[in-house]
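Suppose a colleague, Dr. K., hands you the sequence of a protein chain of 219 amino acids and asks what its three-dimensional shape might be. Before reaching for any lab equipment, you can write down a predicted structure in token form. Begin with the sequence itself:
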Amino acid sequence: MKSELEIEKPSYQQLNDDTQKSNCFFYQEDPITMYNQFIRLYNEEINLINGIKLKEMKPSKVVQFVHYFLHSFLGSFILLILVFIPIVNIIFFFFIGSASYRLNINYLIFKNNISLVIDPFSNMVENQDICVMMKKRYVVFKLDIKETEGLHFAKNVKEMIKNRSNNKNKIEFTIYNQNLKEDYYGYPNHRCTYLVWSIISLIICLIELVLLFIMIIKL
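The predicted structure, expressed as tokens, is then:
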């Protein structure tokens, strides 16, 4: 079956026209970048629910920087050492605290988007196998109506896809996997993770300040 496929580009190439590439610091899959990637996909006409568009979050270089180190082996190892070095760990606390603050600010956008559209995946089709085969979080298919007969989807899914043809010969629809769903619904989990890191860093800094104060008194 011949079909025209439009496959997702890497996250750093999926910035819309209004977003400068300089806003992507490490091109990592940080929570904000991945959330915005999904929002841009949803805001495509073929995926909109009742014509409602959702708002993107404000990118943060601090979040990108911290996420890069927390989710790379070398970065995590370095941070594990630095976090116990006096003064240096205060700098680390500043960065992790700033990242947590940015995530909390953007959480307001997440809540507002959820209130507007409860399930933004309604006009998409979930299929883990196809996404695994394509090694993508999502794939946008453009097919002739006749070609949809060869798709191994449930009957109701096929009907949903056909109903979107609007009497045209071509049908365009998005297939996604659980990873893409996690990019959207999993944002609050990342927010909590960064909050925990902030609390741990603060406790370590306070302990060191207390120990430093005790040492000064004894001198």
